[in-house]
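We close this part of the discussion by returning to an individual protein. The sequence in question and its structure tokens are set out directly beneath this paragraph:
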Amino acid sequence: MMHDTIAAISTATGEAALSVLRVSGPQALEVAARVFQAGRAVADMPARKACRASARAADDTLLDDGLLLVFRAPASYTGEDVVEYHGHGGLLVTQKVYESLLAAGARAAGPGEFTQRAFLNGKMDLTQAEAVMDLIHAQSTLALRAAHEQLGGAIGREAMALKEVLLPVLAHVEAYIDFPEEDISPDTGSALAARMDEVMQRARRLIETGEQGRILRHGARTVICGEPNVGKSSLLNLLLGFERAIVSSSAGTTRDTIEEVIQVHGIPLRLVDTAGLRESGADGIERIGMERTLRELERADLILEVVDASQPPGRMRRVELPEGAASRRLLLLNKADLGQAAGWPQDAVAISCQTGTGVEALRDAIRSLVLRSGPLMSDHPVAINARHQVCFERVSTHVAAAKAALGGGLAPEYVALDLREALQALGEVVGAVDVEQVLDVIFSSFCIGK
């Protein structure tokens, strides 16, 4: 597969001012020469300088007129010879140029194949390859920052730094296995244990960024709930900045969940407006809506419970949350412009969806609650994903087992075995070991042309 020359349309499907087509592989220059005619032969074009070129079909029919760029190996994205054509962004013209490249000898690239070749050719490690898609899918400024940090190799450097701490420990243990007469002194054992503690502490700090990484990549699922007519849909519209949900004084207007994505202080939130909860009087469809509300509460990262603050607390029905969800709830005292009745908790946030009062205080409270585990990306410049988390969990587990074996007087072979497993897990983080199945899963989620 790596000996093939691949081609793809790298811009999104649809009409636009420009489109970009990419060709990469050992025959990239030859394939491009069969399709594009510039002022000089493609093989003689200067690297990284745009030249005007026409795109032609096999029968020499003119297809398009645009710019051609050549990136010679190894100084290219994939590490191979790469040719890019920037042409007009019409659907038909782009497709015709693409078909000409395939007819000239290129193969259609699979999802993520350009980035996969970059990884296999040593242009980036596996964490950086994953960051490419994080960068494309980023929905907030913090997610964009985290993606840039990862693309710059931050996670890979962390993994390699842990490796540098563990390797001397393993070397010392294996030296003792080879030369058992050189006993491990108590002082040496304590030094090795201290190094293992350092690795475990640093691994745990990385693992703790996993939840923040999930929120940055997928958004904090934020459920708006409460009784009918307390202002749930009005709150959704206020946070969005436009009227997404129908607002009515009639109970039961919202019968299904409505979902939209916003960002608050750089944090992506998946806002879910739900049907109002009440004891009775609901028809069949409304009951289904309330059942969906209860399911959403179980899945929520953040719960915005809205009440009518102009009414005494005794007259308002509070939402019964699933077990363990109380720490994820933020109580919003809506209709503050009508006056606030006595008895509501002091730590609640007073707002008015009618006038916009309290919106900034609400945004600050949301940020604090979502990031209650600590300031996002202040202690660590990275936020790991689920795959990294599994690997670092294995590192921590195996290093802990190695330390226990060392302190328990077990044979050094047991210590060495767990240390090797920890190093294997660190290698998997950056793709430094054979992880073919992992690669298939990662790159299958990429878009074509990247």
